[in-house]
Amino acid sequence: MSATKKTLTIGKHTVPYPLVQGGMGVRVSAARLAGNVAKCGGIGLIATAGLALNCDCATGSNYFETDLLALKEELRKAYEIAPDGVIGTNCMVAVSNYDDIVRASCEGGAKIIVSGAGLPMKLPALTADFPDVALVPIVSSLKAAELIARKWNKSHQRMPDAIVVEDPDTAGGHLGEKMENIGNGDYDQYATVRAVKEYFRAKWQLDIPVIAAGGVWDRADLEYALANGADAVQMASRFVCTEECDADMAFKQAYLDCKPEDIGLIMSPAGLPGRALKGNLDQIRAHDIDGNINCRSACLKKCAYRDKRDRFCIVHALDRAQRGDRDSGLIFCGSNAWKANKIETVADIFAELFD
Ligand SMILES: Cc1cc2nc3c(=O)[nH]c(=O)nc-3n(C[C@H](O)[C@H](O)[C@H](O)COP(=O)(O)O)c2cc1C
Known about the structure:
CATH superfamily of the largest domain: Aldolase class I
Radius of gyration: 19 Å
Strand content: 15-25%
Bound molecules: flavin mononucleotide
Shape: globular
Number of helices: 12
Helix content: 25-40%
Structural class: alpha/beta
CATH architecture of the largest domain: Alpha-Beta Barrel
CATH class of the largest domain: Alpha Beta
Strand order of the largest sheet: 3-11-10-8-7-6-5-4
CATH topology of the largest domain: TIM Barrel
């Protein structure tokens, strides 16, 4: 039997294929993409960051209230596409309304919460009333996984249902490693995957799925990941150039047009490095700083733009990109985005990976 023909069980939820579609904010992975991935037999994740900026389900001017309504609406729409699918949310610890977003995910029917951009230490407490919701931290090191396990065990008598190990050298979006440590050849993604797997086995007698994220593009990458210790993969960039991806066609076209040298590291105002198309950074900054744009929502716990007018307002830069503004929008992407050469369907990708 081919190595790719295996199911994935996280907590109480099982899908036919070992694939999680990575959360992509702001609204790059919303209901349509997540619903279609779930329909094809993977785990579909709605990225919760910045949903309020496009909410037609509420008229309120309050960003945070609107965010929760918008999230529940996206979950409802995703389940319309895949009523029996496994649909979850991606919740970033770095956002100001993290606690509320996690609770709204549970109330809205998310079966899985995948959480990174900081250590999700409070996740078990926030979801205590929803024991069937599987909890999946994203880490980039064994140390982070150990810290989470020890804290969850001590404070909540709970363990992660799976772990995503995200490779800072290849993944898109915010990265969980210091800028100076990225791309210097020191990081070994699959050594980290195996170390995390072994840690949970040896220390906690737990065989939880360890999911490799970053740099998985095609079937060969998937087979490599599974042969090197991963139980499943989380893929994000590959899903951008699908018909179902929730971003504007111009966002997808930027992937189709880009070359390896267009992809690079940026410093996010959230204080984390990120991987993105880097050609228009000056324009992004000029849009916000020259335009004297004020922080409108205080969406991040820590933000250099809000506090010091440094860099740019990230949620609006990502929002502009999602709407198709390639001049002043920030386009996050993984190191493989240049490989995109056509618009395909989610089903095409599943067929290529698993048929
Ligand atoms: C456009 C884009 C947006 C992303 N947004 C988020 C996000 O909101 N939260 C998060 O945890 N990860 C985010 N990521 C990271 C992905 O979920 C995923 O782990 C990573 O990109 C996997 O690598 P790949 O793109 O090479 O498949 C984003 C990635 C991309 C490409």
